[in-house]
Amino acid sequence: MTDRILTPDELEAALRAIGAERYHILHPFHRALHDGRLNKGQVQAWALNRYYYQASIPAKDASLLARLPTTELRREWRRRLEDHDGTQPGTGGVARWLKLTDGLGLDRAYVESLDGLLPGTRFAVEAYVQFVRERSILEAIASSLTELFSPTIISERVAGMLGNYDFVTEETLAYFKPRLTQAPQDSAFALAYVREHARTAEQQTAVLNALKFKCNVLWSMLDALDYAYVVPGHVPPGAFRPGPQA
User: Fold this and answer.
1) CA dist 219 to 23, 68, 157, 213, 234, Å?
2) Cα angle, residue 27 at apex, residues 22 and 28 outer, rounded to 5°
3) Which of 131, 155, 183, 187 could pair with 150 as two cysteines, CB 3.0-4.6 Å apart?
4) Whole-number mean pLDDT of the chain?
């Protein structure tokens, strides 16, 4: 637990310090992806595995939405569902991520089947969904605060991938542009909620641990990719294997 009750500004500073130390922008696989040091098959593996995370975000948000006690909170969180699921077929973040995997040459039915997922990806994503479903509303909201740091990683990702991979286009990366405005809006609400409602040392510790947990989820997903597709390159049975064209 924290040694004392932090002021809201101190709590925010502690949350931002966690991101500075633990956010997956620092992971070696992320650095290789954005610096152009991966081949097409490795980029495909990243996009395919990340799809499960993207597709699970609406499910975790829906589980939290069902527990929110006020109309105002439900209205705010419902916007996240619309951002990711869209308001009609072919819209929303999940659909845009499938355009990314399409653009990388992956079969859409195969991506959606989840047959090629790494075990580490599946365990990490399902742990996150379970965390949001079972922990307190305060912890669940705090776990979303990785969005505080996402505009930086998105900007770097788009610039790096467009500059370093001839098989990537702006259309392929269409998922990311809306997130540059959606993520700051989402994180501003979540941060304000946490600053207001984490009032005891116990609550503040829970909030900090929730953000650490979420950072660990994202980090472990890249650990699994790095182990399977970079070094030592041990792809688990049944997981995606890049074709010779990659």
Assistant:
1) 7, 28, 16, 10, 18
2) 155
3) 183
4) 95
- The residue type at 4: R
What tokens were used for 223?
């650990």
Give the amino acid at 80.
R
What would you report as the CA-atom Rg of the chain, rounded to the nearest whole angstrom? 18
Nearby residues of 50 by Cβ (< 8 Å), 6 or more positions away: 97, 221
Using left for φ > 0, alpha for ψ between -120 and 50, and beta otherwise, residue 233 falls in: left
Segment 58-78 shows an average pLDDT of 95
Q: Are 182 and 83 in contact (CB under 8 A)?
A: yes
CB-based burial label for 232 (10 Å; 0-12, 13-18, 19+)? exposed
Task: Give the Cα separation of 146 and 167 in Å (integer).
Answer: 29
Burial of 6 (0-12, 13-18, 19+ CB in 10 A): buried
Residue 178: the pLDDT is 86
* pLDDT of 193 over the 60 cut: yes
- Helical residues (DSSP H) of 86-149, grouped into ranges: 93-103, 108-113, 119-134, 137-142
Residue 245 pLDDT level (bands cut at 50, 70, 90): very low
Does the pLDDT at position 104 exceed 90? yes
C-alpha 244 chain-centroid distance:
29
